[in-house]
Amino acid sequence: MAPKQKITKEQLLEAAFEITRREGFSAVTARSVAEAAGCSIQPVFSQFATMDALHQAVFSYACRRFTNEIMKNKDRPDFIACTNKWVLNLARREPNLFHLLYLSDSFQGQNLWEVMMGYETNREMAAVFQDHYGLTEAECKDIFLRGYLLLHGIATMIATNHMDFSDEQAADMVKRTVADMVEGTRRRQNLGMEGRKEEKEDGRERISESAAYDCSSGQDDARRTTEACRGAVEEAGGICQAKQPLLQ
């Protein structure tokens, strides 16, 4: 009698992933996964103690799988644009998987963005931003978050058939908006530098004015001292002249 084929955890996750792609995440049950994997439900519960554990594992599996796909483009100069197009393409062509990754509400506050924050994808994108635009880490994070909200909103409307935009139109909208945010950040940087420059110039002017005042005050004091001395000399001279006949 041939030994039974052992069903691996990876096979079960792949089966659940395909069920989600075809029917949606709500269709993932122990029975449906077992049927798709060609086994009984016993291996499912051997690998996953509860259905919540199975759902969490499927979500993490999808995140890892798609992160690997995105990172294939990391060496391209248009890496960020490729990532945006990938998200928009997923929303249009794989709405069930998009819903799992971006619209799930049962993962204890997790979503794909939070998961990817610890992945190489985010670090690569931050490096591209900082290197290309000369931004700080805080400025990059701010633009990421605002750009992500825009991309997420457009992709969600595409996934739910509420927006009749092509992927190219949507990607261009995100690209131009991010460019505007970068330009705005640079403008604020320049204004801040100009403000600091003006403060330094004002400080120098105040120092110069103070020095000029001190010099002027010193000159006035010297002038008054000179005049006082001259007056004293003249007075002394007058006294001498008055007493001179007596000395004769």
Main attributes of the structure:
248 residues, Arc Repressor Mutant, subunit A, 10 helices, disordered C terminus
Please give a structural write-up.
- The chain is mainly alpha-helical and 248 residues long.
- The protein has a domain at 1-48: Orthogonal Bundle (Arc Repressor Mutant, subunit A).
- It is 79% helix and 0% strand.
- It has ten helices and no strands.
- The chain has helices at residues 9-23, 30-37, 42-47, 51-70, 79-93, 95-102, 112-116, 120-133, 137-159, 167-247.
- Helix 1 packs across helix 4 (51-70) and helix 9 runs antiparallel to helix 10.
- The radius of gyration is 39 Å and the shape is elongated.
CATH domain class of the domain at 1-48: Mainly Alpha
Largest sheet: none
Shape: elongated
Secondary-structure-derived class: mainly alpha
Q: Mind sketching the topology for me?
A:
Blueprint: H1 9-23, H2 30-37, H3 42-47, H4 51-70, H5 79-93, H6 95-102, H7 112-116, H8 120-133, H9 137-159, H10 167-247
